[in-house]
Design a protein that fits this description.
It is a single chain. The chain is α/β, with parallel strands linked by helices. The protein has twelve helices and 16 strands. The protein has two domains: 135 residues, Aspartate Aminotransferase, domain 1 (Alpha-Beta Complex), CATH 3.90.1150.10; 245 residues, Type I PLP-dependent aspartate aminotransferase-like (Major domain) (Aspartate Aminotransferase, domain 2). Strands 1-11-10-7-6-2-3 form a seven-stranded mixed beta sheet, sandwiched between helices. A four-stranded antiparallel beta sheet has the order 12-14-16-15. The radius of gyration is 21 Å and the shape is globular. It starts with a helix and ends in a 13-residue tail after the last strand.
């Protein structure tokens, strides 16, 4: 028998709000040295774009992720923008990108003067469907020397950006093989995936470049911030240079050698990030406990399934989610409405990006799975403190 809306509501409330209190989707958790480090910035006056916490935060990120280099930025969008630029994306290029993603993944392509080329997703990881993508490229792409060209538009296809949706890693091995076949730069939008692993390796630096986000709703926060991950010495050097206005090093001259960007992360934000990173292991344990609770609670709930990590991965479970069966998809909006009215912040997936006004004319493959997933998925409250017993 299929679940009723009331049954689903009660199962969500049992985990997220057992005492009928209002609960957010993903709230920050400050339990460590945040006040101490931020106060040090205030006491010393080092609050802006230079200071010891910026360097420490970047070094700590390399320790956590295993990437050789991490370059702190003002936000995840700026990290993506620079990643595309350093991958060679320029005016008139196309970038393969999932339609099932947050708008920033796409906007950063437009900042480069390039065109997003939308691709479909698959149901297990919610990431791109590499099997269908390869079939699609076999039909619409040709190689002109080392450049992949869209036969339908005549434009170069310069890169492929994958998204680790809700923290669940995509299957990177076949994606990397596909990128080699078509000479595509691989970029990872790992904005939601700090603490997620693919076959034992942290995501975000398997490709040429990757981007993290530390917005207030992420697993750790700097208030607003991001980072570029790479294993390339040259790309890391260039990333640091152009995110800091492309200023040449000098004690007092202001000389710049190219168009740069003021994408620097302030020291006071980095201080917050350092304190948050110290607590990442606790946050990850708490979120895994919470996901286990949700998973068990929905185990015998007909008509839906709880989204779990793929077999090849270890997810950070940034946002927990349920996926309704097609047969009960029509109850999604009533569930969203009822739960939000009860003070429980649940959300649908983002509007698909090919449907946004500014991207409706962009090239795309058949997107039927993404369209189906968007209509059926509900994101659940996932703050670490909801699993209080594991935050020690």
């Amino acid at each position: 028998m299929l679940a009723t809306d009331e049954e689903v509501i009660q199962r969500i409330k049992k985990i997220a709000s057992p005492h009928d209190k209002a609960v957010g989707l993903h709230e920050p958790c400050f339990m460590g040295n945040e006040w101490k480090y931020v106060k040090e910035c205030l006491d010393t006056g080092w609050v802006s774009s230079v200071g010891k916490f910026v360097d420490k935060f970047e070094n700590d990120l390399t320790d956590v992720t295993g990437a050789k280099f991490a370059i702190a930025t003002a936000n995840g969008t700026s990290a993506l923008h620079i990643s595309y630029l350093l991958a060679g994306v320029t005016t008139g290029d196309e970038v393969l990108v999932p339609t099932l993603t947050f708008v920033a993944t796409i906007n950063a392509i437009a900042y480069c003067g390039a065109i997003p080329h939308f691709i479909d997703s698959e149901e297990q990881s919610l990431g791109i469907d590499v099997v269908r993508l390869e079939d699609y490229l076999n039909n619409i792409a040709r190689m002109d020397g080392a450049i992949c060209v869209n036969k339908l538009t005549g434009r170069p296809i310069r890169a492929l950006c994958v998204m680790h949706t809700l923290g669940h890693p995509v299957d990177l091995d076949p994606i990397e093989q596909l990128c080699k076949k078509y000479q595509l730069a691989l970029i990872e939008d790992a904005a939601e995936a700090l603490g997620s692993y693919y076959k034992g390796a942290h995501v975000g630096h398997r490709g040429l470049l990757g981007a993290l986000s530390f917005n207030g709703n992420k697993i750790i926060t700097t208030g607003g911030g991001g980072a570029i991950l790479t294993n390339s010495t040259e790309l890391a050097k260039r990333a640091k240079h152009i995110t800091t206005t492309a200023k040449l090093s000098h004690a007092w001259l202001f000389e710049h050698d190219q168009v740069g960007y003021n994408y620097r992360l302030p020291n006071i934000n980095a201080a917050l990030g350092c304190a948050q990173l110290e607590q990442l292991p606790q946050f990850l344990r708490a979120k895994r406990t919470l996901s286990d609770q949700y998973s068990k609670n929905f185990l015998k709930c007909a008509g839906l399934r709880f989204i779990t990590e793929p077999s090849y991965a270890k997810s950070n479970y940034w946002l927990n989610a349920i996926l309704l069966d097609e047969s009960v998809a029509e109850i999604r909006n009533s569930l969203l409405d009822s739960l939000n009215k009860a003070g429980i912040a649940v959300r649908p997936l983002w509007n698909l990006q090919h449907s946004q006004l500014m991207y409706k004319e962009c090239p795309r493959m058949d997107l039927s799975m993404a369209e189906s997933l968007q209509k059926r998925l509900i994101k659940l409250p996932s703050s670490p403190h909801l699993a209080t017993n594991n935050l020690t």
